[in-house]
Amino acid sequence: MINNNEQYRGLAKSTNIKINSEPKPHAPEIKKTDTRRGYIVRRFVQKTNDNFSPVSEVSRDGFGMMSANPLYRAVSLKWRITGTKEEIKKSNKASISEQLKIMPQLKNRLVNFLEYSKI
Hints:
single chain, alpha+beta, three-stranded antiparallel β-sheet, 38% helix, 18% strand
């Protein structure tokens, strides 16, 4: 019988993925173009085999690397930053809801619907 560590090593070898690769936390920077557009794209990753593991926000590059890693699940969403408080809250709550099937703990990671907003 093959244990989990052996399975991970075999999977990593077959896909050229580092088993020890960890997500690097990232906080988005809001640019003038983002403010004009009205939203930013936020990217999150979580270990695939643990629904209660921490959800980490990552950069675009980190997202590309981690989403190619079968040991992690990854989601991206549009995060509204302009509008009225109610518009922003409603829009961001809807963005989160769309990703809950993939990453249920996202609802516990993103509790401030006005985060990064430019009101």
